[in-house]
Design brief:
292 residues, alpha/beta, Arc Repressor Mutant, subunit A, D-Maltodextrin-Binding Protein, domain 2, 3 domains, 6-stranded mixed β-sheet, two-stranded antiparallel sheet, 44% helix
Length: 292
Amino acid sequence: MSYANLPLHALRALEATIRLGSMTKAAQELDVSHGAISRHVRELERLYATTLVRRLSKSSEPTPAGAEMAQTLSEGFRSLKLAVARLSAGPLTLSCSATIMQYWLIPRLPEFRGLNPDVHFRLNVNYGEVDFAGDGISVAIRNTMYAPPDDVVIHDMIGEEIGPVCSPEYLLRNPMKSTSDLKSSRILGTATRKGAWEEWFLAVGDKIPEIQIAEEYEHFYLMLQAATFGAGVAMAPHYLVQREVNAGHLVAPFGFAPGPHRLQLWIAHHLRQNPGVKTLAGWIEAKMVEAV
């Protein structure tokens, strides 16, 4: 069969069905009807005279032949994505969380632009998984809480040091001499790091007390803002609050201790030799290490 006769729509339907384990989910991803996915799969089974998918009541299960074909198709579509990304590479794009952007990156951007006026990049606000080719991401700053994709260059940067922080005014009103004083403190939390307090108690070797989160924020930067204005005590990585601590806007009554996570730089494999990417990645790594 020539390339011109390959049933690409049907192959995409099969790959998505087996990868997602459901024709319904495949239809949602490809923005077609469930019936269209089912017809595409039947077309392939008729064309190749073999059963590729077992239809179950609420899901779809590949046969051995279907699983093997889907694995090859996934690799092929990934290669196609990368080929298109190389040809249509737009401006460089740096992805990081809103908190890193607000507290760490933006205050340092004037320095980077002054040193590298010819390197231009866009900012993408995200903190989870990355589809480098699909989303047009060049470089991503990520925490090891998240697993990197297979086709990415990983630069390990720094280990996170974590500790409780609050405003100087809050500490005056609520003195904290030992970790046991936190039981009577107003504890702030965030939906993006629900286990942060437990991680810190383990890091400092203390038994985890029964503390209650008085207020949980959807975003990390909102929690830090609340702590800055005296709303309570927040758990934060040192590199994110170093400027605020140095300026006296926040205090760390117990200092910082090495936590369980590290900060990494993920670089799109197809852009690893791009001069602008190398300049940007090198600068981020140097500034992160400098901040430790």
